[in-house]
Amino acid sequence: TTKWSEDRFNEIIKETSTFIKKVGYNPKAVAFVPISGWHGDNMLEESPVMPWFKGWTKETKGGVVKGKTLLDAIDAIEPPVRPSDKPLRLPLQDVYKIGGIGTVPVGRVETGIIKAGMIVTFAPSNVTTEVKSVEMHHV
């Protein structure tokens, strides 16, 4: 815990940045926000217990983003871009055989687009079939 100490907060940023760099990420793309989940400090609104905290800054593809609270940092997260212009790649998670329906492959579309009526080939078995329907389930 920082106990609202600016020095301790900066020490934690330094240590965490070293780790972030080691695992292949850019620390400048991370918003470091001092919060207290217990007391709700600096989560939704600026906290009066840390007047030294002037806010966070992070680099994004769209430029530099600034904020003060955890909510600002969450709002500044850019959703990943789905490469829908690339060929279809759908790793299968499971395959179900449902009576009256047929064979139902289950997986997540990593690249490309899948639509009913498409002809697809599964590797490595080289099985080709037509997509009858597509259902999405967000978990």
UniProtKB/TrEMBL annotation:
One Gene Ontology molecular-function label: translation elongation factor activity
Gene3D superfamilies the record matches: P-loop containing nucleotide triphosphate hydrolases, Translation factors
SUPFAM superfamilies hit by this protein: P-loop containing nucleoside triphosphate hydrolases (SSF52540), Translation proteins (SSF50447)
InterPro entries registered for this protein in UniProt: EFTu-like_2 (IPR004161), P-loop_NTPase (IPR027417), TRAFAC_GTPase_members (IPR050100), Transl_B-barrel_sf (IPR009000)
Highest taxon listed in the record's lineage: Eukaryota
Keywords (A to Z) from UniProt: Elongation factor, GTP-binding, Nucleotide-binding, Protein biosynthesis
Boundaries of every Translation elongation factor EFTu-like domain copy: 102-138
PANTHER family, A to Z: TRANSLATION FACTOR
Name of this chain's protein: Translation elongation factor 1-alpha
Protein species of origin: Butyriboletus yicibus
